[in-house]
Amino acid sequence: MSTHVILVEPRLAQTSKASQLKIDLQSPWMITSGVLGLLLLGLAIYTKVSTSKLEKLKRFEEYKNRELQKKLKLALNTISKMEKNPDLIHSREFNLDYLRMRMEEEQFHFAIMNQIKIKVKEKISIALRPTQADQGLVGIASSTGRQIDEIFDVEYDLTGSQKGVKRVLFRIQIKLTKLPTQPTSVTISQIIQCMQNFMSPEGDDHWQPTIQGRIARLHWDQKAKPTPLLVLEQTNEGANVTFRTTRMAAN
Fold first, then answer.
1. What value does the CA radius of gyration of the chain take, rounded to a whole number of Å?
2. Which residue among 2, 90, 103, 114 is least enclosed by CB atoms within 10 Å?
């Protein structure tokens, strides 16, 4: 019987173990590189999608801006044509002539004045209410006063029918300085009295309105077209000055 002896060279075994160790060391780096690659790919896709959305939003905003520019230009052209329309240039004067004529009617005069009284009490009562600044800084409020600027519409149904719709005849703007020199009710009564005297068909043309002991000016605003605007405002002149007032007419 013969005996065969197989000799394994140590060099081959060592080479095999080194290759296996090298593969084991490279595996985590390969996995990490793969994950990073996927993350970069995902980030690139997200960036592209976000950029695309922003570009679409930008194009939409630019389109809206162009449309608004067109509408603004159209509105300005329309206003310019209306201001140059000969039928509207003298509309304010026509409205004032109509108002003068109708104010001579007792029923119309009563309805207009009653509406003015109600709206003056509603608007001015709220505007004249003391504020926290008035209550906390009485000395400053007494010296400087507080500016009041209120505007409201005077409406009337010209058809006289039950299903008629009220239309704006004119507007009233009240501009005065609130001073703590008299009660609010007295100031409101003075404002209403000014309106009554001004609107009265048989009033005195030399009458001079005063509010809170100061001269007031009551006039139709020349620039308010086509709807007339009646402005009541205080002046800085003393209460003993009197000048002629053109009643129910444009100054």
1. 42
2. 2
Q: Give, for all 251 residues of the chain, the pLDDT tens digit.
A: 455 544 444 554 455 555 555 555 566 777 777 778 888 888 888 888 888 888 888 888 989 899 988 888 887 787 677 666 666 666 677 777 888 888 888 888 899 999 999 999 988 888 887 665 555 544 444 445 678 889 999 988 877 667 778 888 889 999 988 777 778 888 889 999 988 888 887 766 677 888 888 888 888 888 877 788 899 988 765 544 433 344 444 44
DSSP sequence for the chain: -----PPPPHHHHHHHHHHHHHHHHHHHHHHHHHHHHHHHHHHHHHHHHHHHHHHHHHHHHHHHHHHHHHHHHHHHHHHHHHHH-HHHHTHHHHHHHHHHHHHTSHHHHHHHHHHHHHHHHHHHHHHTSPPHHHHH-HHHHHHH-EEEEEEEEEEE-SS-STT---EEEEEEEEEEEE-TTS-HHHHHHHHHHHHHHHH-TT--TT---EETTEEEEEEE-TT--SS-EEEEEE-SS-TT------TTSB-
